[in-house]
Amino acid sequence: MGTIFDETLTEDVTIDESEGLQTSGVATTTEDNNDDDILLSSIATLLGTLDTLGAPAAGDAIEAAQNRVLTFEANVDPNLKFTLKNGDTVVTEVLSALSTTAGGDPITLVWINATTIFGYADRGGANERVAFALVLEKIEPTVGDPGGARVTIVQYEALDNGNDALFDEAVDLTGLVFVDAVQDIAFDDFSTAAAGQNLWNSVTDTATGIQLLFTGLDFGSDTVNTSDFAIGSNSQSIAIDDGIVVDFVKNQTPAKDTDAKTVTTINFTERVEGPSGGFTLVQTGGNDANRVGAEIFAFDSSELGTHYTDGAIGEASPSQTIVSVKVWLGDTLVSAWDRTNGITNNTDPGVTYAISDPNDNDDGVVIQGLLVHYRVEFHVGVVDGDDTGKLDRFSVQNVSSGGQANDTFDLGDIRLGGQVGEQAEVGSHINFEDDGPTQSVTAGTATVSVELDETTGASDRYAAGETADTYLNDDNGYLAQVTTSVAGGLVSLFSAAGDYGSDGAGTLTPLLSFVGVPAEGLATSLSATHGGAITLFADSATQLSGKDADGDTVFTIAIVNVGGGVLQLQTTLIEALDNGNDTLFDEAVALLLPVGALELQYQVTRSDAEGDTVVASDTILLADDENSVFGFDDDGPTQTVTAVAGAAAQLEVELDETTGASDRYAAGETADTYLNDDNGYLARVTTSVAGGLVSLFSAAGDYGSDGAGTLTPLLSFVGVPAGGLATSLSATHGGAITLFADSATQLSGKDADGDTVFTIAIVDVGGGELQLRTTLFEALDNGNDTLFDEAVDLLLPTGALELQYQVTRSDAEGDTVVASDTILLADD
Predict the structure, then answer these.
(1) How many distinct helices (H) and strands (E) make up the chain?
(2) HSE on the CB side for 694, CA within 13 Å?
(3) Do 372 and 410 meet the contact criterion of CB atoms below 8 Å apart?
(4) Which residue has the higher pLDDT, 258 or 693?
(5) Domain ranges of the chain
(6) What mean pLDDT, rounded, does the chain reach?
(7) Nearest to 247 by CA among 201, 199, 212
(8) Closest Cα to residue 345, out of 325, 362, 331?
(9) Superkingdom of this entry's organism (predicted)?
(10) pLDDT band at 471; cut points 50, 70, 90
């Protein structure tokens, strides 16, 4: 335990330069929130005072903090002052380890007065200014509170706290700032004084070695006496016109009953000075309501030992001007006066003051109306030429105005100010906490949607029966390339806010990037038509590539600058995807990630001028195992088949059942051109269409983005049901002929007996060339018996026979298109 300060109760005062009060007690990742910040408005008067001392204007203060740093021991009431030290040397200025954020200017602590220290940035330089102020305030002792020292910090600009990785770290003033406490010495125990009536007497404070030497007012004739706690004069108590003179000395031989009877035994060798004195009326005559008066003079003497006095008291000692008086009852101030303003506290209006007779010595003061147990405390100051501001002697004379015999008093608790001192280091308890930038990033509810169609060209492709959708040609030199058109760019999908804090602006670095794709890639739900399963890789923070099992890039997704710093999402399809459903050409597949998630991240890095950095980010989901903003529409093959004009005429077939080298005609029948078409049958004719039957059709198509698969052409007969189709023909032997389909490429005309009368077949005449071959096995009943060479046509009363050319095209993915057209061979 200390003499004045209770060392177990030392506390910190911590200011946080962050905006607002950091006092909630609820800690965050960057702020402990247990600081001592106060509202600047609560110290408006103090800010004005600091302004007059050279600090910036009140409006320039950025933060303030205040807290008790020291607590007194019980029953002490010292005076306090700031002290600066450089090592062990007391100084008025000392360079600290602190510096400002702006300019990095070093800070010098400057002692302004006993209660004020300024922290000057760039001391003596062109940009000298006050960065902060420290103010010391005494907490007066009260009932339940022993009192102590309070320090207020006012900060005018940000400090560089050094560690850019922390926002709340503190710097302090260790070893530089001290609080000095000076306590009055009080003599309230006179049990060791010489007994009886004596010309002088003394008691010693064993802790300091200071001695109280006291005499009567009329030195050498008036006597003094003591009780255990009080001093009287002559007839025990101090009567009107009597008084006591006290001196504060050292090295006086303690008074003994015999020695104190003569003044020649006064032999002290040193005087002790202080700025103030005091005493208590420990006893008064009459009852406790009896008021008395006292006149006080203070002196600063140089007399030692036997030269204690030469003549009347005060003649050889310069009197000191008493400038203020306080009257206490215990810890309660009941009255106060100063020479300039008069009474400044009149809790007890019965106490009055007057300056001593100006015609004699106006340095003293007369106090009337004092009650028992009142303690008088007075201070001297430099007012005239012989004032030193110190005293080592004072006198108290009874000048009670009542004039009654019981207007007497005894003195005790004799005090000399400024004698017991203690110094406490407080610089290590004065903390300046850092401020840091703030930043938030929050993804909005809006997102992006990307749909690509691997179809190239001006129109989309659909399978039979597939519903058409809106199609935009998105080729752009690739199978597809789509760039989003988010108003304001991708950053508008996020809201970002922040500030640099007290340290001021540094740098702001926004970054849009993809996150979620590890170095080894991320499996996707997609597969390339050529190359198989696709894995997503991060080429950089702003570009992704979907690569197939062969390592070929199938698609890319990139964050691109479309001009003016506006960023958009650009997706490019380079190779076709396998969309799965071969019955549809335009179905979409989504980019899904079975074991991960792809996100668009907006990150903002804000650094203040000191270098403290905060990073904030948020993300928007682009794809995971269930959701995706990316859709890829399929492509399919195309195929057309069209019968050429006049194709049917090239298929006209005429057979003559006449066998032999010449035709036969009835009398008068006109002969026609005859070609022997027996060929081992009644007749057989094969068409000779240039290029074969397929040349009768125009066929065109392509495989689309998925690439070549298979192409399957097919010539066939269509229109003949399984039950056959009645014809207009009749066999000479067998009756009516019905047409049957033996296969897709051969038909048979059979009579009522089931005999085959003729066949019609699609045959390969060599080199893959297909022609139509008609063979007549039995004679037909041509109807007109008067003619031998009349012709009958194959007609179908209830149906139609057609030659169909069908082309089936499948792309590499398996999407298939079938196209066909027909040429009419026979109907009704």
Answers:
(1) 1, 54
(2) 14
(3) no
(4) 693
(5) 7-160, 185-420, 438-633, 639-826
(6) 86
(7) 212
(8) 325
(9) Bacteria
(10) very low
Q: Which helix (H) or strand (E) holds 607?
A: strand 598-608
Q: What is the pLDDT of residues 760-784, one digit of tens each?
A: 999 999 999 999 998 989 888 776 6
Residue 725: HSE in the Cβ half-sphere, 13 Å Cα cutoff? 23
What SS3 class is residue 651?
A: helix
Contact 132, 156 (CB under 8 A): yes
DSSP code per residue over 15-43? EE-SSS---SS---SS------EE-GGGG
Q: Which two tokens stand for residue 773?
A: 């071959």
* Dihedral in degrees, nearest 10, Cα atoms 463, 466, 472, 474: -40
- Closest to 579 measured CA to CA, from 705, 708, 457, 711: 705
With b for 16 or more beta-carbon neighbours within 10 A and e for fewer, the 337-356 pattern comes to: bbbeeeeeeeebeebbbeeb
Contact 628, 666 (CB under 8 A): no
Token readout for 240 is 């009107």
Backbone angles phi, psi at 205, to 5 degrees: -85, 110
pLDDT band at 361, cuts 50/70/90? confident
Q: What percentage of the chain has pLDDT greater than the value 90?
A: 50
What lies within 8 Å, CB to CB, of 28 at 6+ separation is none
pLDDT band at 652; cut points 50, 70, 90: confident
**Residues 6 or more apart in contact with residue 191 via CB below 8 angstroms:** 228
Q: Regarding beta strands 231-233 and 243-250, do their DSSP bridges make them parallel or antiparallel, or are they unpaired? A: unpaired
Burial class (CB in 10 A: 0-12, 13-18, 19+), 799: middle
Q: How do 801-811 and 613-623 pair as beta strands?
A: unpaired
250 token code pair: 């050292």
- Where are the alpha helices (H) located in 657-761, listed in sequence order? none
Average confidence (pLDDT) over 674-683: 71
For the entire predicted model, the pTM comes to: 0.55
Selection from 182, 245, 246 nearest residue 417 by Cα: 182
Q: How far apart (Å, rounded) are the C-alpha atoms in residues 396 and 393?
A: 10
| E strands in 100-174 | 106-113, 116-121, 129-139, 148-155, 170-172
